[in-house]
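Intended use. Records like the one below are meant for learning the mapping from a protein sequence to its folded structure. Do not use them to infer anything beyond what is encoded.
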Amino acid sequence: MDAEKPIIFVDKMGDQFDLRIFSSTDRQALTEMYDRFSPKAITQGLPPADDRARGEWIGTLIEYGENLLAWHRGLVVGHSSLIPAREGREGEYLIFVERTYRNRGLGTALTRVAVERAVELGLESIWLTVEALNFRAIKLYKKIGFEFCDTRER
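Structure written out for the chain above:
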């Protein structure tokens, strides 16, 4: 994926989004998305509810992750991060989409681009954790091709 050129995505409602790789000038917009995000600490304590902890978490994602932002009308409304392992050929994946933009195909688009990026990075696998009752997310991940296993199998 070209860092300079966004991928244009049109959702199920006909709204246009720019999917772009994170750049250093995007940190404030990403932070603002997570400040707006509701509810906080919904999935495994993420995004952190505490402002300071949330800032540190965002900083860690920026430092170690391959981050993709979904922009709509000048705001970041979706974020995915692919975090390659320091050693090995795998990476962890996470994604957050603001509530108003869910069920419109944006999560699918972000995830597809992240999978393509994982291939570009030479990763053999990517993994994630998802709550067992998050049926929407599970449906998305299965559609993309993720295989599910018990946490003890990983």
